[in-house]
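Researcher: Batch entry, complex prediction.
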Amino acid sequence: MAQLEIRNLHVALEDGTEIVKGVDLKVDLGQKHAVMGPNGSGKSTLAYALMGHPAYVVTDGQILLDGEDIAELGADERAQRGLFLAFQYPHAIPGVTVTSFLRSAINANRKAASGGEDDPVPIPEFRTNLLAAMEELKVPRELASRYLNDGFSGGEKKRVEILQMAMLKPKIAVLDETDSGLDIDALRIVANGVNKLVGPETGALVITHYQRILDYVTPDFVHVFVDGRIVAEGGPELAHKLEAEGYEAFGSNGNGRGPS
Amino acid sequence: MSSTHETDVVRGIRSDYKYGFSNPDDAKDYFFKSGRGISHEVVEAISEHKGEPEWMRQFRHKSLDYFLARPMPSWGADLSGIDFENIYYYIRPTEKQADSWEDLPPDIKDTWDKLGIPEAEKKYLAGVGAQYESEVVYHKLQADLEAKGVLFLDMDSGLREHEDIVKQYMGTIIPQNDNKFAALNSAVWSGGSFIYVPPGVRVEMPLQAYFRINAENMGQFERTLIIVDEDAYVHYVEGCTAPIYSSDSLHSAVVEIVVKPRGRCRYTTIQNWSNNVYNLVTKRAVAYEDATMEWVDGNLGSKVTMKYPAIWLMGERAHGEVLSIAFGGKGQHQDAGGKVVHVAPRTSSVITSKSISKDGGRAGYRGLLQVAKGAVGSKSKVVCDALILDEESRSDTYPYIQVDESDVELGHEATVSKIGEEQLFYLMSRGLSEAEASAMIVSGFVEPITKELPLEYAVEMNRLIQLQMEGSVG
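Model: Structure tokens for the complex:
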């Protein structure tokens, strides 16, 4: 069984509108998957539903993480089981520094891992890990003491999303349009972070509109996502085909071939 | 004077209020306890028992007349639940004050141990006063500060040992007839702190007073007077707790502060009364030339709080700051705020208020900014932010501004916000529970104030916020 297995997943908005219309997908540790689709195809809804956003209702199907159906769990419990979502638009939390937020998040996960007993990360260990991850991901030191995403540029937000991913070490990382709004340097850093993280203990699902990030993160599998469904699957060559022919070739009615 | 039954029964203890314990055995051991209710006889008995000078005895009786004559305030929070006839106005738990924790009766010492006060004294305090019911039972000041002439006594000792200073200032900053509850305090006051910091002396570590109500239907009326002389500095911190009883207690303090030229006083309150305490406090400071007065006022506990720390800027370039946090949870009404009166030219002030309400609670800001004619070149900024955590809760802002001088610079900002579903989801997607995520957002909201606190108090404040947030979210 794959680490993340999505079976016949249907997701609707609270008003009943169905957005994700039956998706099957398996992501294993060590694998990089790309879900590529045009704007409005339901990619972000898929990402949010995987993480457990309350506004998106799973109406049918299963989300199995390590064999356990997590579709009914809250976002916190999914995170504690090793799921991570890098947000397209991360939210600002004024008054809470990146450092203090990260320590709280790590401690929340450690507490869950030790059956509800507090097990805070020793401060020196936390500091060492944080500094190493920041160095690795070229996150400027000063960001650590700024308030989370408060007044951050688009690039800073994305870097800090990747920093969170590196610190929380999820089993499955879902990246929702993490490449949007990044200049080429930032894109490289983000891609580098994904490449570093994916390995024997982590798999990634990169959701994107563009081929661009896939120049730096070579996916093992590509899934073309149109109108709430996966309409084509293949290896990295599929991304290039998409680049050349556009989403129209896969049945999209045209709102989406991106510049590249 | 024995009635132990009202302290035997401790009902409805909130599981998240860790100070809700009481020491029921105490009640029968009290050294002196007045009967319930207020009268000239009670006032007489208190004054007599304390062996006070004649002028103080008269001050008390006059104050009681003012109290009896004044109507209850018709604005602010609902005070109709206060039964003045059911309150004990004076309870003296021990015969003598101790200057070492070991000398306290074991059950009282145990209370302070549970609250962590002796530990805090060792670590980061320059002096400690601990009031239990009506009297300060423990008092200690570091020897080097004593040698420099710093006075840090309980108010009763202050009156005995420095009657001239007390007589000179008491009731001058807050007249005994200032308001109904100041009048009540003036009539039955007991305990509180008396502080004098001589010219040029800087007390680098905080002085802390800790107030504990243990008996049910107790009225605690401490009286504090702080004189910071020229170029001197002091940071005074007060904390307070009480057990949870099914019927109410009353805490009504009066705090008067004088900051002389170039002096600076910071007064920090972490108010954590249990949810059966009416907390009706009058606090006022005057600041002279180039002096600075800062009120840092955190209101997390109590059933009802009405408190608006005030600063009168009497000398040129005096500066005043009020930082107020009010957290109104279930069944609580925090009517907090601040007042600044600019009397002298080129004075400046900042009022920052952060109020949070949840589970049907009310928290708000009620403030007065006044600039007198002639206070030219004065500047003031008022910022009131409210965070409302659910649909049942309420926040009110009453920013009164009265300006009689045209050459001034004033700013006022107010915001009201709610915790967004998206913010919560974002934090929860990192593994924080809904309660932890909400607490984090709230801690961030009050951070502009907690960052002003010494580390230990900032930690305490955040912990109290977390306790307030736990258990009822989700």
